[in-house]
Design a protein that fits this description.
mainly alpha; two-stranded antiparallel ribbon
Length: about 140
């Protein structure tokens, strides 16, 4: 290997090392910027407790990754709220249906008891399509 080749190779190596130092410095700056963004995202998440606030915070976020993470958390919170509300509505509907059934049972037992008393007295119940007594007529067969 000639002296000129060695000098040329050394110059290339020095240039590559210099470029690597520049790239390392840029990476360190990018890493510091990323850490700063992470701190900002954490601060925004602490400040944003409600969905409306979260929308305003998303506008303030500067990177797509930070925005995606915040959106994910907001969506999960909204889904939990919707699920909880849906469960409460379902439970209320079930309670209302149970109360309606209880009322019908009580009304049916009252009607049946009234029909029994009227039949004992010699009245024949006149029933509707559901075989519920609607009126009583007196039978002379007693």
């Amino acid at each position: 290997m000639a002296h000129a080749d060695r000098v040329r190779l050394n110059e290339e190596i020095k240039a590559r090392k210099k470029r690597l130092r520049v790239l390392r410095a840029e990476m360190q700056q990018d890493g510091a910027a990323l850490e700063q963004l992470k701190r900002e995202v954490a601060e925004f998440e602490r400040q944003c407790g409600r969905i409306e606030k979260a929308k305003r915070c998303r506008v303030a976020m500067t990177t797509v990754a930070a925005t995606a993470a915040a959106l994910c958390r907001v969506d999960m919170a909204a889904t939990d709220q919707v699920d909880t509300r849906a469960e409460m509505v379902t439970q209320s509907d079930e309670q209302i249906a149970a109360l309606d059934l209880k009322i019908r049972q009580l009304q049916d037992s009252y009607i049946d008891h009234a029909a029994y008393r009227w039949c004992v007295l010699g009245f024949v119940p006149i029933v509707d399509a559901r075989w519920k007594p609607v009126a009583y007529s007196h039978s002379d067969s007693t």
